Amino acid sequence: MNMETVYSEESVLITGGMGFIGSNLVRKLVKLGANVTVYDNLDPDSGGNLFNLSDLLDDIEFIQADINDEVRLKDAVAGKKYLFNLAGQMSHLGSMDDPIHDLNINAVGQIKLLEVCRKFNPEVNIVFAGTRQVYGKPQYLPVDEAHLLTPLDNNGVSKRAGEMYHIVYNHVYGISTSVLRMTNVYGPRMRIKDDKLTFIGWWFRQILEGNPIQIYGKGGQIRDLNHVDDVVRALLLCASNPTAQGKIYNLGGKPISLLELARLMVEIHGGGKYELIPFPESRKRIDIGDYYGDYSLIRNEIGWKPEVPLRNGIKTMLEFYYKFKEHYF
After folding, report:
1. Number of domains composing the chain
2. Residue 3: per-residue pLDDT
3. pTM for the whole thing?
4. In the chain, what percentage of residues exceed pLDDT 70?
5. What is the DSSP letter of 78?
6. Quick check: is 323 in a domain?
């Protein structure tokens, strides 16, 4: 598929576009010649960072507003062909500390957005950013889309509600929607100031500041990771491929233990250290154990597979934060 042919001159809306994945998607779409509108409330706790797109502000339209603001949503949605819905609250611990806030963004905000689309732009093509957190503790590996859904935290519950609203609006109203269940996305422009949103971002900050990477337990937990460039490609493929309409797809990558990942980061950085520490009780209660996803469905139906090698992705991410760390620490 020629992405430039698909997206050139098309009107595109990206909610959460100042965040990590959103800003990388914006950059790709601008290169493809799309007319891009970014909708973001710039909540720093959700990763919104004006620096992520500071050099492109003349090339995009930026609307600073909340996803629960139906008046602003109506204006933003009007006339758009594609909507990449990346607005959301992603903190697992944050969802336990303030479940109502989590629900308002990940469920109430999503239904408001879909209602605006239904009323004012039912022809829009929507891709929703889901999460593998909806599966909870895996019963088998790799986890496929048929796996039982038993999320272990409020964030998994609210994200499940958000994704199902999108599927219902496809089935009932015929709106083109699809869902990508993402797993441990990493790369430039992610929030790394603390460990609220992602463990790997925090690990990068620790290694860059000369602090030990702290691994909970014995480090044998298995994870898979996707570089943000691969995720951007999946989003673009889903939005433009009719086969994806009404579908939920896993993303995924090659499994690696946390101990192996820490060692690889130290090796690529050329220095650093790691240490094994006991699980904090707050994290132990919501830890999912081992996880890696089966992405054969999206591979077989629309041709996506991860392409960025982990070693290359870590190297380029380190180089990015060497250069711009003052904007992310």
Report:
1. 1
2. 81
3. 0.96
4. 99
5. T
6. no
DSSP element (H, E) containing 226: strand 226-227
Whether the Cβ atoms of residue 88 and residue 104 lie closer than 8 Å to each other: no
Tell me the per-residue pLDDT of 191-248, one tens digit each, with 9 for 90 and over: 998 887 889 999 999 999 999 999 998 899 999 999 999 999 999 999 999 999 999 9
In degrees and rounded to multiples of 5, residue 277 shows phi and psi of: -130, 155
Give residue 81's pLDDT band: very low, low, confident or very high (50, 70, 90): very high
Strand bridging mode 61-64 / 176-182: unpaired
Q: Is residue 316 part of a domain?
A: no
Distance CA 1, CA 83 (A): 19
CATH of the domain at 46: 3.40.50.720
Q: How far apart are the first and last CA of the chain?
A: 38
Strands 11-15 and 82-85: parallel
- Distance between CA atoms of 64 and 76, rounded to whole angstroms? 11
Range of the domain at 160: 3-186+225-252+292-308
Query: At residue 139, what is the residue type?
Result: Q
- Residue 42 inside a domain? The answer is yes
* Average pLDDT of every residue of the chain: 95
CA 29 to chain centre: 17
Does residue 263 fall inside a structural domain?
Answer: no
Beta strands 213-216 and 82-85, pairing class: unpaired
